[in-house]
Amino acid sequence: MQTMSQNNLAEFFETCWQDKIDHTKTESDLSYSHPIEDALIYPIYKEIISELNIPANGGRILDVGCGSGRWVRYFSREFSPSRLLGLDLAISSIKLLEKWYSKINEIDISFAQADITSAKINLTETFDLVNVANVLFHIVDHDPFLQAIKNLKTVLEPNGYIFTTEYLPKTTLRSNMMLVHNRDDFERVINHVGLRIVDIRATSFFANDPMGLDASEESLRNEFLTVKSAINKMLSEQIDEQKHTRTVNLFASLEHTLLKFCKSRMDDVDLPSQKLVVLTHT
């Protein structure tokens, strides 16, 4: 299996967001995430923010790896933060978001190019919530990964929280674009820099890759991927918007029910899905 280096990944995302700049005509064209995943994870975000009393309304939010603005849209529509900063390694991402979201209501919003893995990163602000979704497992080298965690801690308010999406299998996995740390190594690194895990919530079965399974479970992983592929094919063939929405809602309800059943019998960390992991200072 060929694997991408950190430089390869940087080039990939630079090209990806430049393509969005070149071809985006409406806001819906900015969408990059799976609609079923969105339907499942957004309520989990809102639930945890409420449970932990995170000041998403009136507080300060940092979105690391802002890409094409998925979480910028979410936080600005569901909440009213006083400050919203988006960071991305790709300059094309910053140009894209400055074009579409330079002004949102009364929010103090801005975007900046930054390498979260650099010891020389210059971030002078601190935040109540640091969102780093689908980012950390794209850091495929150990030292940059460790530095990224240190940088996230530095910009976190004393009572703040970090939201990161992880898989946390029992054994570390390396795919073409990801280094998926096993749960013990991940916790060891965050504890080393002075952070701890507050919560882990599994988010979906088929809307994302089942990287929570171990390498020895490749056959089972392929079965999950077959179902995912069939769902995606069904969605791609539905041009009618109402039918597409009904199908998304149906599969989201099925996944939600399956998750609820499994969570009643096993810990979230043991599920094959991606998880929302919440961190704070020790």
Can you tell me about this structure?
It is a single chain. This protein has a single domain (6-281), classed as 3-Layer(aba) Sandwich (Rossmann fold). The protein has a seven-stranded mixed beta sheet with strand order 3-2-1-4-5-9-8, with helices on both faces. The chain has a two-stranded antiparallel ribbon with strand order 6-7. It has 282 residues and is of the alpha/beta class. The chain is 43% helix and 19% strand. The model has no long low-confidence stretch (mean pLDDT 95). Helix 3 (70-78) links the parallel strand 1 (60-64) and strand 2 (83-88). Helix 1 (6-23) packs parallel to helix 4 (91-101) and helix 2 (35-51) crosses helix 8.
Short description:
The protein is α/β, with parallel strands linked by helices and 282 residues long.
CATH superfamily: Vaccinia Virus protein VP39
Question: How far apart are the first and last residues' alpha carbons, in Å?
Answer: 39 Å
Largest sheet composition:
7 strands, mixed
Query: In which range does the helix fraction lie?
Result: 40-55%
Q: Say what the CATH topology is.
A: Rossmann fold
Alpha-beta content class: alpha/beta
Q: What is the CATH class designation? A: Alpha Beta
Supply the number of structural domains: 1
* Number of E strands: 9
Q: How many H/I helices? A: 8
Q: Shape, please?
A: globular
